[in-house]
Predict the structure.
Amino acid sequence: EQFVASGGDLVQPGGSLRLSCAVSGFAFENYEMSWFRQTPGKEREWVASIAAGESRSLYVDDVKGRFTISRDNYKHMVYLQMNDLKPEDTAVYFCNAGWREGVFDTWGQGTQVTVSS
């Protein structure tokens, strides 16, 4: 299993970013997918999940109304559109299969999002 996250950047508060995660090594279309984030000294935190059939999604309260998870089952990609970013969104973001928790032990390097003025 391989997860390659990209799209992170330095952005000002109130700005937007779209993260992408390229997935390979398993039957992507059959799995729920999730985004997670981690800051130094803290455990990895679940952010959002999307069902295999794209019809259902769930978000941690902190990002509801600001973040949107989506997926492309043909391209084996999962996305996280992040709007109205706040400094507390600063973290390394990862994707993995699963609903609210990662199924696979492989996490990849993630992508750094920094929200600062």
